[in-house]
Automatic annotation (TrEMBL):
CDD domains: SF2_C_SNF. Residues 896-1061 form the Helicase C-terminal domain. This is DEAD/DEAH box helicase. It holds the Pfam family SNF2-rel_dom. Keywords: ATP-binding, Coiled coil, Helicase, Hydrolase, Nucleotide-binding. InterPro entries: Helicase_ATP-bd, Helicase_C-like, P-loop_NTPase, SNF2-like_sf, SNF2/RAD54-like_C, SNF2_N. It comes from the Bacteria. The keyword ATP-binding applies. Residues 454-483 form a coiled coil.
Length: 1069
């Protein structure tokens, strides 16, 4: 009988007439929000849903009632995870009526009014029905309707305005700006006066940027604007020397827009106004582009979104560049010039910008510019990112210049001593050493080979300030070369010379200067010994490929003959011991560290989750700080929840002899910051730096723990510290090359940098490049070159380039340590229970499933592309929760529930604990209700938005601890999004994935909450799968196959992503 009913009602959505059978309580509400009365021993889905809302601090308890504020209601209405369970609130239908707003008086009047004057229906006709409003509910002729969020916010603002007393023009304008903005969003009908009265009060600013180069100096123009800004807003803004509280701006239609500036926006605009013509140049321009919030005041973070600023930079094509220097040598293997290749730090398809150092003089000035004490390196108007590899290349250039100078000195001596270079009148030369010293003197005859007019100029310039004349002549020659001129005017004279003669004169003046210096040196009683230059020639002849090969051989770590890990004496060895893989990890880190910073500057610790990375790192840094001859501090950067774990593990595994830790976040950070008014005006006004730590802020702490956000905001203080070791935990935070937090991490001065993440590649191989750009700059080259050479060939959908993949593996291998839990022998076994992968489909599920597939094929044939995801979701829910579509059906119609009951009964007999994972809130509520009824447990549900910290109620960890502390059998329901940083549930050894994630890595991450270091039992993992063995492969069967194929590749962090769209389609076919 039921099957016939289902065939007549093939709609797979919950039937409206079924909601009355769900034991839903009558809808109730007041001005604060909607309410729900608590009933003792209540067991309905609605009861459990309200309980979860209260646990997540979305709802609160008052006098045995739950209250969900209207603001929170509208928030969860926007969230996808509440979509399938929101019906439990029993909300009324949303009204299509639009507000009608009228005014009385003018903005200058103290009795100015803005009022609700009724509602317009869909035909734009003002309704005559009797309407009452309570909160977000309209009662129309006794029928309840829900207002849209926009309309609710509008009428609440009108209500607030009506209660004001002592109104004046300023207050009226402020409120009308807010009401006008809400009216536009609610599509309200306004009277003529309100429609023509434009008042804007922007709470957010958009900073448009324009960059120009003037005389090879970067100039950035900042154009602050906002939503609905008049076209002539900037022109009006620039007319005043100071930021006004209000601007009146003429509009093209003859009207006037009044722009009222809130205090927070005014502070930001005031900082911009301080910039001449809204422009910043030189170092300040680069500092502003690097971190605008440091220059625009404390309110900037609330007024300007980081995402919009980054977008503005991209639209203005403002990028930083990575530099590669290609040196050119002559036949003597002496440096003569260099080609500069500037690679844009973006993923755009851009060829490198090619510049050139044409000669030795330009090279000298290039090196000088790089060595200036400035956080930004500008050349030819381009900002070039500093890094240790570029430091090395600059040093090589300096070495090349020194070699050339030495060679030229030797060559000059040879030329002077070679008689064949002279006329026949020269019959001999005296003692070589003495002759060389004397020969460069004027009376030895060298100057006789100069033309007479050059000799006269030489004498004239020597008699004056020789060093100054040389500098001026060098500059003059360099400018002539850059401008392709053939002659110059000699500084401090009226004489014109060809470039060739000018260079000859310059060389002669340099010889004279060198002579003077030699003579002064010779006068000293104890001459300084000449420094050896042997190493310089060796450095010039190293081939890059050979260097990479030698480096790899140097860093190799023999797994069979690896050195023993050295542990700090503070390690509580009488209580704890490292597992084999942990000891290996410490030894591996120590092996690499011995070559830092010259041969290696960091590594990637990519261990699987739950293998004890924190303990390994604490042992590594503890031993270093205990035994280093000249120890330097250690910086650890991590999400705040992990920093608490770092402190907890340090206290647990180490004695009080462990190095002192400073937690640089929260209240302890506030204590160490310099008040803004005490920061020098030069730093504030010339450089825009307003966020600094006090001198000696670190005190006697050896280890500093801080957050990524703190590192970003206090980069000028942290980057001045000379760190020995820097650790970025959960380093996926620095995988975006253009992000400010990534740049701040790369700006830190550390000998050895460690990136820790179990998922080095999440989106694309660009993630890997960015991590290596942090730990070993330039190993993988510039980003766009890396994309061409490795990412595109490896991630090619038509087939990965195995040659490129192999080459990339070999390049990064010495600096990557990755172990998976199945490779580690000292963890208990993880057992996947296969018997649950053939749960036979019920008649209800079969019919619903066939209906969805047929409807999908029909919609697809009609070209309805949106049908795919909708059908996928329906099939997913049919397999997991058929009662979603027919709430009054029997539990026997859900075979997965019956399997769950039997499995939990078996676990109960063993007195063990179980985690049930599902990301769907309606399934969470459903399971909580039926399992509490069956097992009499107070079951906890934890979602991704459960609090990680709270001043009231239970935090996420509190809820988990409560579950673990209960002895014997217990159940907890978790969302896969709730298993982020720091969630450990080792007391449970049964993991049931009631519904599956699309991502096998995410699914394994969920399992790893139980299967990790500290687990002393076998862990059983269940993937209950609905099957229709004889007829067809169900959605869950196909998804299981797909996830298993993906899981086989999951251990390989370099494998390319697959086409998810095609895979999803295959699940339906």
């Amino acid at each position: 009988m039921k099957l016939a009913f289902w065939k007549r009602n093939k709609n797979t959505e919950v039937r409206k007439d079924e909601t009355t059978k769900l034991n839903l309580k009558p809808f109730s509400y007041n001005d604060l929000g909607i309410t729900f009365s608590i009933t003792q021993n209540a067991q309905t889905d609605a009861d459990f849903y309200w309980q979860s809302l209260e646990e997540e601090e979305l709802a609160y308890l008052v006098d045995e009632h739950y209250v969900l504020p209207w603001e929170e209601l509208f928030q969860i209405l926007q969230e996808e995870e509440h979509k399938n369970v929101i019906n439990l609130l029993n909300l009324p239908k949303q009204t299509s009526l639009r507000p009608v707003i009228k005014s009385e008086g003018g903005l200058s009047d103290s009795n100015f009014k803005i009022m609700l004057d009724g509602w317009l229906n869909e035909n734009n006709v003002k309704t005559k029905q009797i309407i009452q409003r309570i909160g977000a509910i309209l009662i129309i002729d006794g029928v309840e309707y829900l207002l849209s969020e926009q309309s609710f916010r509008l009428v609440e603002q009108l209500k607030e305005f009506s209660r004001l007393v002592n109104k004046d023009k300023e207050l009226n304008q402020k409120y009308w700006a807010k009401i006008r903005n809400l009216s536009n969003k609610a599509n309200a009908n306004l009277d003529d006066f309100l429609r023509k009265t434009v008042v804007l009060a922007p709470e957010k600013l958009q900073l448009n940027l324009r960059k120009n180069l003037v005389s090879q100096e970067s100039i950035v123009e900042i154009q602050p604007t906002f939503d609905e800004a008049p076209s002539n807003w900037l022109k009006t803004f620039d007319q005043y020397n100071h930021v006004q509280d209000q601007y009146s701006i003429s509009l093209p239609d003859g009207g006037i827009a009044h722009v009222v500036i809130p205090s927070t926006v005014k502070q930001v605009l005031t900082e911009i106004k301080k910039m001449p013509s809204r422009r910043v140049t030189g170092e300040r321009a680069q500092a502003f582009l690097h971190n605008p919030f440091a220059q625009l005041g404390d309110d900037a973070i609330d007024v300007i979104s980081l995402e919009s600023f980054e977008t503005s930079k991209q639209q203005a094509e403002i990028y930083t560049y990575t530099l590669q220097i290609k040196k050119i040598y002559n036949e003597l293997k002496h440096y003569i010039s260099a080609k500069l290749e500037l690679y844009e730090n973006s993923e755009r398809e851009q060829n490198p910008i090619l510049l050139e150092l044409h000669n030795l003089d330009q090279t000298f000035y290039f090196v000088q510019a790089y060595e200036k004490k400035s956080p930004f390196f500008m050349w030819a108007g381009y900002e070039i990112e500093r890094n240790s590899y570029l430091d090395h290349q600059i040093q090589e250039l300096k070495n090349d210049l020194n070699v050339i100078k030495q060679y030229e000195d030797e060559l000059q001596t040879k030329q002077v001593l070679d008689l064949s270079n002279y006329s026949g009148r020269v019959i001999g030369i005296g003692e070589a050493e003495k002759l060389n010293s004397e020969f460069i003197k004027r009376d030895s005859g060298e100057s006789e080979w100069l033309p007479q007019h050059l000799m006269d100029l030489e004498q004239q310039l020597q008699d004056k300030n020789l060093e100054q004349n040389i500098e001026q002549l060098e500059k003059c020659i360099r400018q002539a070369e850059q401008n392709n001129l053939n002659e110059i005017v000699v500084p401090n004279t009226d004489t014109k010379l060809s470039l060739e003669h000018a260079q000859t004169l310059l060389n002669q003046l340099r010889i004279s200067k060198s002579k003077d210096q030699d003579e002064k040196l010779a006068e000293k009683e104890t001459p300084q010994p000449k420094k050896k230059k042997d190493t310089l020639l060796i450095a010039n002849n190293i081939d890059e490929a050979e260097f990479t090969k030698q480096r790899a051989n140097l860093l190799i770590f023999d797994e069979n003959n690896s050195p023993t890990a050295r542990l700090p004496t503070s390690f509580r060895s009488n209580e704890f011991s490292l597992k084999q893989h942990q000891a290996y990890g410490v030894a591996w880190l120590q092996n690499l560290h011995q070559y830092a910073p010259e041969q290696v500057s960091g590594c990637l610790l990519a261990d699987d989750m739950g293998l004890g990375k924190t303990l390994q790192l604490l042992c590594f840094i503890g031993e270093y700080l205990e035994n280093a001859e000249a120890k330097k501090p250690v910086l650890v950067v991590a999400p705040v929840s992990l920093l608490e774990n770092w402190e907890a593990e340090a206290n647990r595994f180490f004695s009080n002899r462990f190095p002192k830790i400073l937690s640089l976040y929260g209240d302890k950070l506030k204590e160490r910051k310099i008040p803004k008014h005490l920061i020098s005006s030069q730093l504030r006004e010339n450089h825009g730096i307003t966020n600094l730590l006090q001198e000696d802020w670190r005190g006697d702490a050896d280890i500093v723990l801080t957050t990524y956000e703190t590192m970003r905001d206090l980069e000028f203080s942290l980057a001045r510290e000379d760190w020995s070791i820097m650790i970025c935990d959960e380093a996926q935070k620095i995988k975006v090359p253009t992000a400010m937090v990534t740049k701040a991490a790369k700006a830190q001065k550390a000998d050895f940098k460690i990136a820790c993440t179990g998922t080095p590649v999440e989106n694309s191989l660009t993630d890997l490049w960015c991590l290596f750009d942090f730990i070993q700059e330039n190993l993988l080259g510039p980003l766009n070159e890396f994309v061409r050479t490795y990412r595109k060939p490896i991630e090619n959908l038509e087939g990965s380039d195995e040659t490129a993949l192999k080459q990339l593996r070999e390049m990064i291998a010495p600096q990557v340590l990755r172990r998976m839990k199945h490779d580690v022998a000292d963890l208990p076994a993880k057992v996947e229970v296969d018997s649950c992968k053939d749960i036979q489909i019920s008649l209800l599920q079969r019919q619903l499933y066939i209906d969805v597939v047929n409807r999908f094929k029909k919609l697809t044939a009609e070209g309805n592309q949106g049908a795919m995801l909708s059908s996928l979701h329906s099939m997913r829910m049919i397999c997991a929760h058929p009662l979603h579509f027919y709430p009054t059906a029997s539990l026997n119609d859900s075979p997965k529930v019956n399997w769950l009951f039997e499995t939990l009964e078996s676990i109960k007999q063993k007195n063990e604990k179980v985690i049930i994972f599902t990301e769907f809130r309606d399934i969470q509520v459903f399971l909580k209700r039926i399992l509490m009824e069956r097992f009499g447990l107070n079951i906890t549900t934890v979602n991704g938005d459960s609090n990680t910290s709270s001043k009231k109620g239970l935090t996420r960890q509190n809820l988990i601890d409560k579950f673990q502390e209960k002895s014997g059998f217990n159940i907890i329901i978790l969302s896969t999004t709730a298993v982020g940083f720091g969630v450990n549930i080792q007391r449970a050894n049964h993991v049931i994935h009631y519904t599956r994630s699309w991502n096998p890595a995410k699914e394994d991450q969920a399992t790893d909450r139980a299967y990790r270091i500290g687990q002393d039992k076998e862990v059983f993992v269940y993937y209950p799968t609905i099957s229709a063995t004889k007829d067809f492969d169900t959605f869950e069967v196909k998804l299981d196959r797909l996830l298993e194929s993906k899981r086989e590749l999951a251990d390989d962090m370099l494998k390319p992503k697959t086409d998810v769209g095609k895979e999803l389609m295959q699940l339906i076919d």
